[in-house]
């Protein structure tokens, strides 16, 4: 089966040359991927998209419910990835993680209307901690891709778990913020009447309301939106795009399909970079030197990916006074979210 064609592919890539395929495959090495939380709203379509990625040869699906059924279903798709599902019984989590080179984690509860992502902290922190502990033990060199919210806090939790286990490699831990870039591209291209694939808007900071900082001035089409009310509306829509979906789904959860797409794109980019492809750039939330002096140890910016994961973290670059203000609002909130995760895991190891 050929990879799905999609001109949207390039809109996800924050700096690299546009491509017209969802999954580009330019290397011969292939990868074993584990999805933890594979039966959920994100997990199922994400697993299907990963099964359709020609660079994935082994797909291990873990969930506390339904994973063998999801794997049996997806396993009938005639692409190379050998797909197996594991439940919590019989050491299923460790079996799913054996040999994994990428571990993608969408496990955890989603928001309902009126909730913030931080309201998910109490439930999702322990889910992510426990999955990270298993990964640190079974596949300590794997690349960890964290989707579970609140991403601003769950990524630092994973880092602390890996540090405690003595296996932390900051180059291999990623908070998936690709959906913010996807939304920004979609919304701006709608205004600028441009092709989404050619409308690339880096989003920096974190992944929640004011911590999402879209850099419209760095998009070719950014000048279509002048400073003022119109600009503010667009920024607000990008920052609160998640709320738009939560509201539209009327208590049935949050973004799942667009998130699955975004995570599949990020996974494919990372695999291509690990396999040696050059100039693979994505915005992602990583252990970053950029604002550590302001108490922000994790920050999303453009990152060149490479064989070891993070190859180069790019600074935010030239931004407008409006974007400076957004960044000023982002940093203290992000610092608070990061500290919350670190403190919680130190009290709940
Ligand atoms: N990073 C992003 O941009 C982004 C976007 C959308 C959603 N999310 C987040 O992703 C998470 C999942 O969202 P969803 O809509 O798929 O939720 P969901 O409830 O549909 O699915 C979550 C899945 O996780 C499983 N699960 C729960 N505990 C587990 C454990 N200990 N081990 C393995 N699996 C476990 C559940 O059984 C379920 O199948 C939420 O926290 C949501 O906020 C993040
Ligand atoms: O909004 C949410 O809670 C889910 C996700 O973080 C999103 O941005 O869609």
TrEMBL record:
Q: Name one Pfam family in it.
A: Ldh_1_N
This protein's superkingdom?
A: Eukaryota
Q: Where is the Lactate/malate dehydrogenase C-terminal domain?
A: 177-343
The reaction(s) annotated as catalysed by this protein in its Swiss-Prot or TrEMBL entry are: (S)-malate + NAD(+) = oxaloacetate + NADH + H(+)
Domain Lactate/malate dehydrogenase N-terminal: start-end pairs: 33-175
The biological processes this protein is annotated with in GO are: malate metabolic process; tricarboxylic acid cycle
Q: Catalytic positions?
A: 207
Enzyme Commission code(s) on record: 1.1.1.37
Q: Which residues bind substrate?
A: 111, 117, 149, 183
Q: Which GO terms describe its molecular function?
A: L-malate dehydrogenase (NAD+) activity
For binding NAD(+), which residues are annotated in this chain's numbering?
37-43, 63, 124, 147-149, 259
Sorted keywords for this record are:
NAD, Oxidoreductase, Tricarboxylic acid cycle
GO CC annotations, alphabetized: mitochondrion
Subunit and interaction comment: Homodimer.
Query: What family does this belong to?
Result: Belongs to the LDH/MDH superfamily. MDH type 1 family.
Fetch the PANTHER family from UniProt.
MALATE AND LACTATE DEHYDROGENASE (PTHR11540), MALATE DEHYDROGENASE, MITOCHONDRIAL (PTHR11540:SF73)
What is the protein's given name? Malate dehydrogenase
């Amino acid at each position: 089966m050929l990879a799905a064609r999609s001109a949207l592919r390039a809109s996800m890539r924050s700096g690299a040359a546009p491509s017209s395929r969802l999954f580009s495959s330019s290397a011969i090495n292939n990868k074993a991927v584990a999805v933890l939380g594979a039966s959920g709203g994100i997990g199922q379509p994400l697993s299907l998209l990963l099964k359709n990625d020609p660079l994935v040869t082994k797909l291990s699906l873990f969930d506390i419910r339904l994973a063998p059924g999801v794997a049996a279903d997806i396993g009938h798709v005639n692409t190379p990835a050998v797909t197996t599902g594991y439940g919590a019984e019989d050491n299923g989590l460790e079996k799913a993680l054996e040999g994994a080179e990428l571990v993608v984690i969408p496990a955890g509860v989603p928001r309902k209307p009126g909730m913030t992502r931080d309201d998910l902290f109490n439930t999702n922190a322990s889910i992510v901690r426990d999955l990270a502990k298993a990964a640190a033990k079974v596949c300590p060199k794997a690349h960890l891709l964290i989707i579970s919210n609140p991403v601003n806090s769950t990524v630092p939790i994973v880092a602390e778990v890996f540090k405690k286990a003595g296996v932390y490699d900051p180059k291999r831990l990623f908070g998936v913020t690709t959906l913010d870039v996807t939304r920004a591209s979609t919304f701006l291209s709608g205004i600028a009447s441009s092709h989404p694939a050619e409308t690339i808007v880096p989003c920096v900071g974190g992944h929640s309301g004011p911590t999402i900082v879209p850099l419209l001035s760095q998009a070719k089409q950014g000048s279509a939106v002048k400073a003022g009310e119109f600009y503010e509306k667009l920024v607000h829509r990008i920052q609160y795009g998640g709320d738009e979906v939560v509201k539209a789904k009327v208590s049935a959860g949050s973004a799942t399909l667009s998130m699955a797409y975004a995570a599949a794109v990020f996974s494919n980019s990372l695999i291509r970079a690990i396999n040696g492809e050059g100039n693979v750039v994505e915005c992602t939330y990583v252990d970053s030197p950029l604002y550590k002096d302001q108490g922000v140890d994790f920050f999303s910016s453009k990152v060149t990916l490479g064989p070891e994961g993070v190859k180069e973290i790019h600074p935010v670059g030239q931004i407008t006074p409006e974007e400076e203000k957004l960044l000023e609002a982002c940093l203290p909130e992000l610092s608070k979210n990061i500290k919350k995760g670190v403190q919680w895991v130190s009290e709940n190891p």
